[in-house]
UniProtKB/TrEMBL annotation:
Residue intervals passing through the bilayer: 107-124
Keyword Glycoprotein: yes
InterPro entries: Ly-6/neurotoxin-like_GPI-ap, LY6_UPA_recep-like, Snake_toxin-like_sf, Toxin/TOLIP
Cited SUPFAM superfamilies: Snake toxin-like
Recorded GO CC terms: plasma membrane
Compartments (UniProt record): Cell membrane
PANTHER family named in the record: LYMPHOCYTE ANTIGEN 6 COMPLEX, LOCUS E-RELATED, UPAR/LY6 DOMAIN-CONTAINING PROTEIN
Chain ranges of the UPAR/Ly6 domain: 21-112
Organism: Dromaius novaehollandiae
Keywords: Cell membrane, Glycoprotein, Membrane, Signal, Transmembrane, Transmembrane helix
Protein name per UniProt: LY6E protein
GO BP term, pick one: cell differentiation
GO molecular function, one term: acetylcholine receptor inhibitor activity
């Protein structure tokens, strides 16, 4: 039995009519463009979740990132940014709301520079 090219669109329309949540889904993708597959969530899954983990600085962080998306029964929003490593979990509860790559928490030059500056100040004060 073959599937029609219109089948995903039909499932989306039927899910909207049944008030079923639809989220984007992927696992361990290196780019947000690889995370645009819509899936119908289960009856007890009321949230869409995006998990982002990245290593590196600025443009160098693109190769060391992992993005996962899907449905979840809980909403575990959290984030941490250590300058050269970052992780975040973004959660929402509307139709295809997890489209972004949770890029609001990424490794940045500013956080890295601040960490280095604080380290230098600590070392200089310890020598006094």
């Amino acid at each position: 039995v073959g599937t029609s090219p219109c089948q995903p669109l039909t499932e989306v329309c039927l899910s909207l009519a049944a008030h079923t949540l639809i989220c984007f889904s992927c696992s361990d993708a290196s780019s947000n463009w690889a995370c645009l597959k819509p899936v119908k969530c289960g009856e007890n899954e009321n949230h869409c979740v995006t998990t982002y983990v990245g290593m590196g600085i600025g443009e160098c962080s693109k190769s060391g990132q992992s993005i996962s998306k899907g449905c979840s029964p809980i909403c575990p929003s959290a984030g941490i940014n250590l300058g050269i490593a970052a992780a975040s979990v973004y959660c929402c509860d509307s139709f295809l709301c997890n489209i972004s790559g949770s890029s609001n928490v990424k490794a940045s030059y500013a956080v890295l520079a601040l960490g280095i500056l604080v380290s230098f100040v600590y070392v200089l004060r310890a020598q006094e």
